[in-house]
Design a protein that fits this description.
The chain is about 40% helix and about 15% strand. With about 180 residues, the chain is α/β, with parallel strands linked by helices.
Amino acid sequence: MELNELKIVPQFAAETVCCFTGNRPHKLPWGRNENSIEFRKVKADFEATIRRLSDEGYSLFVCGAALGGDTYFAEAVIEIKKSREVFLECAVPFPAQAENWSEEDRKRYSFIIDKSDFVTVISPHYTSDCMMKRNRYMVDKSSVIVTLDYCAGGGTAATVAYAKKRGLRIIPLRRK
């Protein structure tokens, strides 16, 4: 699905919507080493958590389609879509988000966009607050947030703080 071929997201009750926030690769203990034991454990946690939430009645899973945690979350939802009726929405902060990424990262991003059910573009171009607006969009439509947060501060921490303020159930996947 190209960003100019977007489908309108139907209304989902907040009680059926889960969003995700997480760190970029440089803030994760395994960095980009997806062969590490730590990464494989977190990947299994993503899938188990999404399946559990699906069993609880959650059907729409929303992520920001960024590098790192967002990518892993989206890929887990795509895998689960093969056996369950769940939907993936990518909340893209601006259309050119992946423009300066490596070719490999852009291919992965394109795969996620193509396999998603809905894509919501928050801003027509980059602005200093488009990422924050994207994060608030996701929280505002959800009743639960899954987090992968290994560091203090940054956009993930701000999103978790906003989710707490909004009263969302928080499911941390952080491992120590």
